[in-house]
Every structure is written in C-alpha cells, then in structure tokens.
Design brief:
The chain is α/β, with parallel strands linked by helices. Helix 2 packs parallel to helix 7 and helix 3 packs across helix 10.
Length: 417
C-alpha cells in the first residue's frame, strides 16, 4: 500500500479498515544470498539500499529483539553534516543529501525537520576552530554561517549569554541540520525493505557465525541455522560480541550514553543548540518535549541505562546554559550502547574472512549517519568495493596508524570521543 493524502482521506472515511501491516513477519528460510545481522537503523537501511540500488532481494535482516529496539530508538534525533576532517566531511555530507530525499524514497514521513543547528563557542580559540570548521563545511559543499554574540542572540535570545565561566562568544550555524523522528526512520526503512522483498526476521538471535576455509557460509541462530553467501555485522554496541563469534577482536569499547525528555511544553526552542563547554545539546520534539543529552557515562557497559551522577551533570549543564528550563518536569530517560572506536570515527569495511563485512564504531554519530551508512555499506557488500564517501573508514587504520580520523583531537581513548 502506498501512503498518500488521498489514502489517508479514504481510510478515514471507511473506518481505517483497509490499512495493511507495514511489513511482513516471515519465518526464516534455509538460505539467503545476504544476511544482515542487526535490525536497527543501519541494518535496515543497508537492506533497503541493497534492494533499491543493487536489485538484490534474497536478503534477511536478523534482529534478536524487535526492529528498531536498539540505538535507533535511543538517541536525541539530531541530523547534521558539520564535520571538518577529510573522510568524515564527505561522508556526512553524503548522508545529509540522502536525508533530504529520504521521505520521497521511502514513501514514509520520517519527520525530517531542517530547523538548523547552532554550535556555541566560548573563547577566541574556539571561534578560530569553528571558523576553520565552517570553511571546511563550505568547501565540502555544505552550509555554515559564523555568528557573533549578537547574531546568536537574535536567534536564541533565551540563553544565558553572560555565564561567569563560559560566556557565549558566538556560534557556528548549520541551517540544513536539524532533527528527525527516530522510530519513524526505523519503520520507514523496514517498510521500504519489506516492499522490495527483504525478509525482516524479529526475535532471531545470532549465536554463531559459520566459516569454512576462510569463507563465511552462514549463521547459527535461535531459530535454526541459516546459510548465506555474505554476512554483514551491523549491531552497534554489540559489535565486539558478534565479531568474536568469527574469532575477531575489534578495537571497540561499548559505553552508555544517556538521553532525556521533559513533559510536553509550548514551542520555545526552534533550533538544535549544542553547548560544548558543558557537553549539552537540546532540541524540542513535535510533541513539545525538550530532548537533550550530554556525555557518555565514562565506564564500559552493555546496560541500556545510565547512572545518576551523569544525569545530574547533564541537568547542571542545561541549567547553566538556559535557566528557563529549570521548572520543566523530566518525563523519562534512557541509555544507548555506543560502539566507541579509538579515533571517534566509524568502520565500514570487509574483514579478513571472505564474505564477512563490518559496520561499527559510530560513537556519537550513529543516528545522523543512518542513510549514508546503509547506502555505502550496501555498495560495499554488493560490489566488494568501498563507496567513495566511506573509503577512509578502513578497519586496518588502527593496526597501521595510517588514515586515523581524530575529529575532536582527543587521542586514542575510546570514551573521550
């Protein structure tokens, strides 16, 4: 069923009895050409683009829980392309262009809102760094405007500009940045892949990866063995555990990142605002809730929940930046399991095992990367060649030291990215 305004009107007049399920619930087949491990945003996007761009439909996406139940539904929904280093810059630019045509591609409303992002700076040195980043963004073909204090004040007058410790000197304004509805992104890609014949198999945990003579031959699952010519691992914070089934040790640490949302309020925050000195970022959802987050919890964990000290730190940073939110009641919090790489940049590459492919290490960048990640990973799996936008995301850079992309210049400590 194709969604349209006319279909909504017709269904409304007939009691909404004609809607069909958004995707099928098939039983797994004995064999597929390609198996994607992980039914989150990146895995679903990979399956969608394998079918759409490469005409491959004998594909299964295996998810141990329910589709979209991991990090794709546990984030602060920010979409942007304001990276400065070669390798990252062209990838996120590529991903943002896909975002801008995504709803038409999927025939699904993912609520992509290009409301603009303002990255605040608080010193002369930060101003210089953001000017350099803005120039890199413009050279890449994206947009960037360097604002002084009064320029920021005109857009977001409700901030505390005269903080004693970190007064606001200005901001880097990325107008094409914004937000999208995280659940809708998962549902849209799931529906799009299913419409093209991909099997989306929920409650199917992968328990082993079969390898013979250096080549992958399939996977073992909680619903039986499945043969496959190619297997893609796209499991975010569980990357190290799944790769270990193929006797691989990844340079990944898994950390918890908390996010928070308040009760619904009247519209007040039109943009996404990031406060680097307090490591705080905030936007307002279509329901009116203030959606915000901050730093990792700084200890390795597989628990999808956070700790109270970091929650307190995030609230303190938020109140420092905008005291007006102090009376808002927090509705809920959640945690996502981040797959942190040593240089803060992702991995999209073939492994040393023939037919086994890896997509991980997204750190903070996972949600905004969903279309670009799926598009470039699908290209790699289908052609055995890296997509030009993701050519620098090699796994061996951590063994050789060549091509590292330390976007934040924080060194090789995973949890500092």
């Amino acid at each position: 069923m194709r969604y349209s305004g006319l279909a909504v009107l017709a269904q409304g007049l007939t009691g909404n009895k004609g809607w069909r399920p958004a995707w099928r619930d098939p039983a797994p087949k004995d064999a597929y050409d390609i198996v994607i491990i992980g039914g989150g945003g990146h895995g679903l996007a990979t399956a969608f683009y394998l079918a759409k761009e490469h005409g491959l439909t004998n594909i299964a996406v295996l998810e141990k829980g329910y589709l979209g139940g991991g990090n794709i539904g546990r984030n602060t929904t920010i979409v942007r392309a304001n990276y400065g280093l070669p390798g990252n810059s062209e990838f996120y630019s590529h991903s943002l262009k896909l975002w801008e045509g995504l709803e038409a591609d999927l025939n699904y409303n993912v609520m992509h809102s290009q409301r603009g992002i303002i990255n605040l700076f608080h010193s002369d040195g930060q101003r210089d760094a953001y000017a350099r980043r803005g120039n890199a963004m413009i050279n890449q073909g994206d947009d960037a405007i360097l604002l002084d204090t009064e320029g920021v004040r005109k857009i977001v007058p409700y901030l505390d500009f005269e903080q004693t410790r970190f007064p606001i000197f200005g901001g880097l304004y990325h107008k094409r940045g914004g937000t999208a509805r995280h659940d809708a992104v998962a549902w849209g890609f799931a529906r799009g892949a299913d419409r093209r014949g991909v099997d989306l198999i929920q409650n199917c945990e992968v328990t082993g990866i079969d390898i013979e003579n250096g080549k992958v031959t399939g996977v073992q699952t909680s619903r039986g063995a499945i043969r496959a010519k190619k297997v893609g691992i796209v499991v975010a914070g569980r990357s190290s555990q799944v790769a270990a089934m193929a006797s691989m040790r990844l340079p990944i640490e898994s950390h918890v990142l908390q996010a928070f949302v308040t009760e619904g309020l009247k519209p007040v925050i039109d943009n996404v605002i990031t406060y680097g000195m307090g490591h705080f970022y905030i936007s307002q959802s279509d329901k009116g809730g203030l959606v915000f987050g901050g730093d990792l919890d700084f200890y390795a964990s597989y628990a999808a929940r956070g700790n109270l000290p970091m929650a307190e730190h995030v609230m303190e940073a938020g109140l420092t930046l905008m005291p007006m939110i102090g009376k808002a009641k927090m509705l809920r919090s959640w945690g996502g399991i981040m797959d942190m790489s040593p240089d803060g940049s992702p991995i999209i590459d073939k492994t040393h095992i023939d037919g086994l492919y890896l997509n991980c290490g997204w750190c903070y960048g996972g949600f905004k990367a969903v279309p670009g990640s799926g598009h470039t990973f699908a290209h790699l799996i289908a052609t055995d060649r890296p997509h030009e936008a993701a050519a620098r995301y090699r796994l061996d850079r951590f063994a050789t030291g060549r091509g590292l992309m330390d976007e934040e210049a924080t060194g090789s400590q995973h949890n500092l990215h």
